């Protein structure tokens, strides 16, 4: 009895310590996010080229724990050669966090979920499952935010191109039409066009700036417009008419895509319910009857059954997502 009580106390102390570390990491990440969000865009761009240690810090002074955590995250990102890839994903999602700050957020969430699941299940395997859930969950959040932003950009593009075509008929140049478009209160399209206008003012051509926007937002329709602008500059022609034709094609495709999405809504809802049902039921059972669920984490046969269930759930999710997905 004493041995078991001592083991429980040790597990509780370890869980509390891990919770403290995770909360500290989350506080540092949230502070970094608020600092990055409050700074203007030009200040954030200049801050990327600053050293990780501030110049006003005394040589003999010990660095702040928050700076230590950020410096460790920055070193991890740069040593793994994934800084550019993470920065590109954050840029697509419209997040002002820097790569090492995002890694810090993921680590904090992973630790919190690992400790929470460990304390609820009373087994180390539960901590591993919680850590996996936290790491994959943050990745899914970033992917979901990126997908929503790219979809919003694609939905706003036809109306924006119609505005560009009207500006061209009024006698504006392509650069002036883009500047007019950048002043519109459209997000995320307005922000992306503002970046394109800023690049043209720094010496880049309109085509190259729009090409970067098309690559960043994964928008083939905008790539077609850029190709039309290049051809118009070389051989001439009515660019406004070409843009109008492209806009009409894009709107027809959007209507068809929405119609397909409406027709497949029942299948998607069924897939969501079937996937969420075992997860929600397992979470409720862990909260209401933890003793009943503990053998799944402590017994070898239970661990094997849990792994088999998770694998079957993932296979079912992949299969159903392929069935309900219709390309338009």
Task: Walk me through what this model shows.
The chain is mainly α. The chain has 15 helices and no strands. It has three domains: 12-46 and 63-122, no CATH class; 150-261, Receptor-associated Protein, CATH 1.20.81; 264-328. It has helices at residues 2-38, 41-47, 65-79, 83-93, 99-121, 124-169, 174-182, 189-201, 206-216, 220-235, 239-263, 265-288, 290-293, 295-298, 300-324. Helix 3 packs across helix 5 (99-121), helix 4 (83-93) crosses helix 6 and helix 6 runs antiparallel to helix 11 (239-263). The longest helix has 46 residues, at 124-169. Residues 1-5, 32-40 and 48-62 have low confidence and may be disordered.
Summarize the structure.
Helix content is about 80%, strand content about 0%. With about 325 residues, it is mainly α. The longest helix has about 45 residues, at about 125-170.
Notable traits:
transmembrane, disordered N terminus, Tight adherence protein B, T2SS_GspF_sf, membrane, Receptor-associated Protein, T2SS_GspF_dom, 328 residues
